[in-house]
């Protein structure tokens, strides 16, 4: 008999599904073993394998194969034990309690050649800091799941330099400062597993390689992925421009970073693929968007951010700007309206391509303007004498032909536009819809839980009926 908890079953199912890229279907066979080193749970496919190894205590030696559906039958957010045992004819019996009600499910015999198929662990594993896991997850989010000729569905791991590189053809993310115990380059296929909350993100990560497999170990989890050898990874180094040659830069304050994260998805637009916005560095820092049929553009002014260098206006996909902020970059370096932009810190570089500069939205005095709250307005003080607001002139910059360029900020400093209130009302309506959708999701989850419980109870009833028929046959 082998015992796991219902919470372990929940975690195992979630991680195994992501690691093995499972969608629908019955799932792979699970291999459960216990010995003096604890309990191991393994599963594999042709391209991936995963092992969970808990070493909490020494256990009697035992091994069994069980169907993957066992995990979904017994999983819960509780630590109630689940006892799994092999019957004499190869069937598996799982028993547990649900709200103190005994549950029991039998499973038909399963067979597999696990010993021959499961990859071997490399002899050498290099240790990396805990940030390795998040770095790998971020790179996986930069790959293209529908890659064609090039291996852009993979993350490139460079043994000689200790770098990770990922691209989808429009953006590229470089991660630096890691240790790989090989000299050449290896391609790790895209996977959703490395961002799983079930993994320990505060522990060291170990990585190694054999001829055909990459192995990554963190805490009790070991992941094996077959190396991509048929496709070639594109050369992305020439897309990484030097920071010192940037013509202009903008630095986002923490307040404006939060403002951007909330505001960018709500700005108007019609193109679902490119999701264009214009970033204008001319005087103030402004993000501008407009939908077809909208008479005036909507402009988000970043009152706490600063720019340096030349005035510049770029047209970009808002998703890449939003992702740069979410990745924690606080500075964007610009080279020209048609050259990719760069974000960089000690360990990372993020580059993305811009949209056609001819499509950039020019400033207008009648724009619907939203301004981030100035940082000094967030500080509460006592016994402060109210100060009268003074009208200020918009900053202007010469464009070289004697005409001043401005992004239309002067009116925003002196008037409170009714359009601002309309946008605020729209945002409040969107928040109300969000709450309604969350309530619907909660009710749907409750319905799914009820259906799962009904399914388990039906299995228990069928099992009891089978036992009764066998008893009746013996009495006869």
Summarize the structure.
This protein is an alpha+beta fold and 476 residues long.
Could you name the key traits of this structure?
DNA Polymerase III, Chain A, domain 2; 6-stranded antiparallel β-sheet; 8 helices; 8-stranded antiparallel β-sheet; globular; 24% helix; 3 domains; 28 strands; 476 residues; alpha+beta
Descriptive notes:
The protein is an alpha+beta fold and 476 residues long. The protein folds into three domains: 115 residues, DNA Polymerase III, Chain A, domain 2 (Roll), CATH 3.10.150.10; 115 residues, Roll (DNA Polymerase III, Chain A, domain 2); 157 residues, DNA Polymerase III, Chain A, domain 2 (Roll), CATH 3.10.150.10. It is 24% helix and 30% strand. Strand 7 and strand 8 form a beta hairpin. About 9% of the residues have low confidence.
Task: Determine Rg (CA atoms, Å).
Answer: 29 Å
Number of strands: 28
Instruction: Please identify the top-level CATH class of the largest domain.
Output: Alpha Beta
Strand content: 25-35%
- Report the structural category: alpha+beta
- Helix fraction, binned, reads 10-25%
Fourth CATH level, the homologous superfamily of the largest domain: DNA Polymerase III, subunit A, domain 2
Please give the largest β-sheet: 8 strands, antiparallel
Strand order of the largest sheet: 5-2-3-4-16-15-14-9
| Poorly predicted segments | 379-420
CATH architecture of the largest domain: Roll
Total number of distinct structural domains? 3
Distance between the termini: 32 Å
> Helical element count?
8
